[in-house]
């Protein structure tokens, strides 16, 4: 009888292969004291383990193929940075000294402390970095406890050819090594869709499912299993009929994706000749490499806060200018939308954040609120953005606006900086467009007022959905309520698009919804003409646009707005998708 287990689908595609369980186990750590005369030896033991971990990660970094289409080395670098951060390289040594405990126990205490700090954070990205810290500490613990069953590293030998890995958890470094050895898909017992591991799987186009509790118990080594990365289902002991069904699905999936490649150099143009702009979201200047292959119309969202992460100091004006300039020059004349700092729980600002808003940081001093309160943080960034605007087309975008005064304040500060730059004979674009993210319901409801004072709007659906539906976007317990198709969300989106149209300014969307092919036709019908998304999604969305007759999608989308609840709206959307396929 077929065995089927459901988890969270984090990377699409079908894989059929043999299961390979990765039995690494979690290092168990017990409280252990050490005599005072062993103190130095214990500290040395920890330092040596950190050195070994460093060497391992450096080796893995070298294994990353040059052709890999994303900033994978950045993921490994994150682990290297964490490994060498004083929080892991120094603090546990202090604990060993003060508590006369083993290196393992000191690491465990330090990990517990760090995890609790991450758990308190509000920012989705930073919160998921908790997994990275756990991965790094586990790497050191495995070395200390001799559980260091390293993954296969043999050159040229594909030990895992056609294997589907089943593991309790996998780090980004594991994924690099395992794929090197022939892994075709993976299943993990823990993890979530925002983890680096999941992001990496999508970039590498490896079908992946996470969150199948006790997955290793259900599947046997070497038995044939099927991964349905669209539905998040793993199947074993299937009949020939089921296997044939999935083989066919896999062929169709591969054919579809290879057929998309021919769209790379084509514009996004609907069948009724309406041009649509497809922009990419980016986080680091290195992300530009991934865009070489996919022709995009610009960067619709550069999340500048990533320049501030994984470090103890803040990037100064010069460093920021160089980073922005790199992106502008890589885009060769195409517009780059730099979002001003959207920090909420970043390390250097954490104390300030907690002091101001101890209970609900999502509603607290973050993004533009924080920048307006801290000119020392904001002004260098604005100067850097303005200076970068002299090197190519730059648009500046303000996150999390909730009232129009915030726009006036920013424009006022910008005017002062422009006067200062002029007096210093420093070049900038006098007419650099300034836009705002509409991601707070108050801004959406009065977007017609915001549109009067901004050069463009960009809908941040990730936050707009969170705030409209009053659900924490990273809280697993309320995940089920997070629905882009909720009537209130759709009505607000329509309203923002209309507000931009009436004011004669462009409206983009840069939240995840913009890159979800299920919503492309609906959004076209609602009037959206600028989408910004992770680069991997662009060709699929372009394909849908190029096969759409927008004049037919308009009435169909308006019908969706009449639906009473999210499920009903979703059904309508699915009907539209099937009908106009
Ligand atoms: C959004 O909220 O939709 C958005 C794009 O911003 P972020 O995900 O960075 O908060
Ligand atoms: Mg946001």
CATH topology of the domain at 3-24 and 151-240 and 247-255, which one?
Glucose Oxidase, domain 1
CATH architecture of the domain at 3-24 and 151-240 and 247-255: 3-Layer(bba) Sandwich
Mean pLDDT: 88
Strand neighbour order, sheet with most strands? 1-8-7-3-4-5-6-2
The largest β sheet comes out as: 8 strands, mixed
Radius of gyration: 25 Å
Our count of helices gives 24
Enumerate the distinct ligands: phosphoenolpyruvate, magnesium ion
* Termini gap: 35 Å
Number of β-strand runs: 16
The CATH top-level class label of the domain at 3-24 and 151-240 and 247-255? Alpha Beta
CATH homologous superfamily title of the domain at 3-24 and 151-240 and 247-255: Phosphohistidine domain
Beta strand %: 5-15%
Stretches where pLDDT is under 50 for at least 5 consecutive residues are 345-355
Please give a structural write-up.
This protein is α/β, with parallel strands linked by helices. Among the domains are: 3-24 and 151-240 and 247-255, Phosphohistidine domain (Glucose Oxidase, domain 1), CATH 3.50.30; 36-144, Enzyme I, Chain A, domain 2 (Orthogonal Bundle), CATH 1.10.274.10. It contains 24 helices and 16 strands. The protein has helices at 39-63, 72-84, 86-89, 91-99, 103-120, 124-144, 172-180, 196-203, 215-218, 240-260, 288-291, 317-330, 350-356, 367-373, 375-388, 404-423, 441-445, 447-451, 461-468, 487-503, 517-525, 538-546, 550-560, 566-579, and strands at residues 3-6, 8-11, 14-21, 163-167, 185-188, 208-210, 224-228, 233-236, 277-282, 299-303, 336-339, 394-398, 434-438, 456-459, 507-509, 530-533. Strand 4, helix 7 and strand 5 (185-188) form a beta-alpha-beta unit. Bound molecules: phosphoenolpyruvate and magnesium ion.
């Amino acid at each position: 009888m077929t065995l089927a287990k459901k988890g969270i689908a984090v990377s699409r595609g079908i894989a059929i292969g043999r299961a390979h369980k990765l039995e690494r186990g979690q290092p168990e750590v017990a409280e252990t004291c050490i005599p005072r005369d062993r103190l130095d030896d214990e500290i040395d033991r920890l330092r040596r383990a950190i050195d070994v971990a460093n060497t391992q990660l450096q080796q893995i970094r070298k294994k990353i193929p040059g052709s890999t289409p994303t900033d994978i080395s950045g993921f490994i670098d994150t682990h290297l940075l964490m490994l060498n951060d004083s929080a892991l390289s120094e603090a546990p040594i202090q604990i060993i000294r003060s508590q006369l405990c083993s290196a393992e126990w000191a690491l465990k205490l330090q990990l517990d402390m760090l995890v609790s700090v991450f758990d308190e954070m509000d920012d989705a990205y930073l919160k998921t970095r908790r997994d990275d810290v756990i991965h790094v500490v586990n790497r050191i613990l495995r070395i200390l406890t001799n559980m260091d069953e390293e993954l296969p590293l043999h050159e040229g030998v594909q030990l895992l050819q056609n294997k589907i890995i089943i593991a309790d958890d996998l780090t980004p470094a594991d994924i690099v090594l395992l794929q090197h050895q022939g892994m075709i898909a993976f299943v993990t017992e823990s993890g979530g869709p925002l983890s680096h591991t999941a992001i990496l799987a999508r970039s590498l186009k490896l079908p992946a499912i996470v969150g199948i509790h006790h997955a290793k118990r259900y599947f046997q080594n070497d038995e044939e299993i099927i991964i349905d990365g669209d539905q998040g289902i793993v199947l074993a002991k299937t009949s020939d009929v089921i296997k044939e069904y999935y083989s066919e699905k896999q062929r169709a999936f591969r054919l579809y994706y290879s057929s998309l490649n021919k769209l790379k150099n084509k514009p996004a143009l609907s069948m009724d000749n309406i041009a649509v702009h497809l922009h990419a979201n980016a986080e680091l200047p290195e992300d530009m490499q991934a865009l070489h292959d996919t022709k995009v119309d610009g960067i619709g969202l550069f999340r500048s806060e990533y320049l501030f992460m994984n470090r103890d100091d803040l990037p100064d004006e010069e460093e920021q200018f160089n980073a922005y300039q790199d992106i502008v020059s890589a885009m060769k004349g195409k517009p780059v939308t730099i979002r001003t700092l959207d920090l909420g729980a970043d390390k250097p600002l954490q104390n300030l954040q907690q002091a101001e808003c101890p209970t609900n940081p999502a509603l607290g001093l973050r993004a533009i609120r924080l920048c307006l309160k801290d000119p020392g943080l904001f002004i260098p960034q604005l100067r850097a953005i303005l200076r970068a605007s002299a090197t190519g087309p730059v648009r500046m975008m303000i996150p999390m606006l909730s009232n129009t005064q915030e726009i006036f304040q920013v424009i006022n500060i910008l005017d002062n900086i422009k006067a200062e730059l002029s007096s210093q004979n420093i070049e900038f674009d006098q007419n650099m467009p300034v836009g705002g993210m509409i991601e707070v319901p108050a801004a959406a409801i009065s977007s017609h007022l915001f549109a009067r004072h901004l050069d463009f709007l960009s809908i941040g659906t990730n936050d707009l959905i969170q705030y409209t539906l009053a659900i924490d976007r990273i809280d697993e317990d309320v995940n089920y309520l997070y629905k882009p198709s909720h009537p209130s969300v759709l009505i607000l989106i329509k309203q923002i698009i209309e507000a931009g149209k009436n004011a004669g300014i462009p409206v983009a969307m840069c939240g995840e919804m913009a890159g979800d092919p299920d919503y492309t036709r609906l959004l076209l019908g609602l009037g959206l003409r600028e989408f910004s998304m992770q680069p991997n999604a662009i060709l699929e969305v372009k394909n849908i646009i190029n096969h759409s007759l927008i004049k037919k999608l308009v009435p169909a989308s308006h019908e969706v707005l009449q639906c009473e609840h999210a499920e009903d709206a979703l059904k309508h959307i699915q009907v539209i998708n099937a009908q106009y396929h």
